[in-house]
Amino acid sequence: MHHSSREGRLGAALVEAADTLFEAFDTVAYLRRLSDHCVALLDASAAGFMLIEGGETVSFGVSSRRQELALDLLEVQHHGGPCLESYGSGEPVPPVAIRAAHASSRWPDFTERALRYDIGSTFAVPLRRNGTPLGALNVFVPEPARPSPAPEDGTALLLAQTLADAAALGLANHRVFTQYRTLTSQLQEALSSRVRIEQAKGMLAERRRTGMDEAFIALRRFARSHRLPIDEVATAVITGSQDIAELGREHPGPA
């Protein structure tokens, strides 16, 4: 890939990595698109992200290219593999020749499966945000394994780490966005509930010719005696599905 086209592709990938602030966000689809960028940038066979939370794998996002291969090589890493190693150390796992790793019994299950797919080498970089490990990005390079020129290996690791850092930031931003959306929704519902209760108090006070405090006490007493949320009783009063006169017939007692 030419230098200029690689820069353009990396720029597009970073812009896409930042675009996570919307409700219909799909983590798996997001990671798949970034994996596709990774494959194109590094001329790899396949690539994939493994997200880990509380020591358990929670999600995979793999490239469209050789999707089955990538998913299989991520799922087989239960007992060890480049993803888990990078996640555990918080550091990149530089390119490893699969045959050499298999001969030395490093990640036996993973390397045996990788050999079936004619993968020549692999490397992984951590997915982390503010020191917190989130998972790892694994890249699979085809056979025959290229002769290991150090600058190329260093460039590949740097590109992969740049993508992984951008993905970690995008995922973290979406989590904060979701938390704020949830909080906003909760605050809006609390405000709407208060408005409905005030409206019901006014209607009840007017019909019974009492003060607002007495109307609220009647609402609350009715809600408690019928084991209903007060907001539900208020809504029933507003819509007319609850007879206001019935609230006035509740036996007085502790409010």
Q: Which quaternary structure do these chains form?
A: single chain
Q: What is the string of SSEs from the N terminus onward? A: HHEEHHEHHEEHHHH
The whole-angstrom Rg is 29 Å
Strand content: 15-25%
Strand order of the biggest β-sheet: 2-1-5-4-3
What is the number of beta strands? 5
In DSSP terms (H or I, runs of 4 or more residues), the helix count works out at: 10
Derived structural class:
alpha+beta
Shape: elongated
Q: What percentage of residues falls in helices of 4 or more residues?
A: 55-70%
Mind summarizing the main beta sheet? 5 strands, antiparallel
Mean pLDDT: 84
Distance between the termini: 76 Å
Show unreliable segments.
251-255
Structural summary, described in words:
This protein is of the alpha+beta class. It has helices at residues 3-18, 27-42, 67-75, 82-89, 98-103, 108-116, 150-208, 212-225, 230-239, 244-248, and strands at residues 46-53, 56-62, 93-97, 119-129, 132-142. A five-stranded antiparallel beta sheet has the order 2-1-5-4-3, sandwiched between helices. A hairpin with a 2-residue loop joins strand 4 (119-129) and strand 5 (132-142). The chain is elongated.
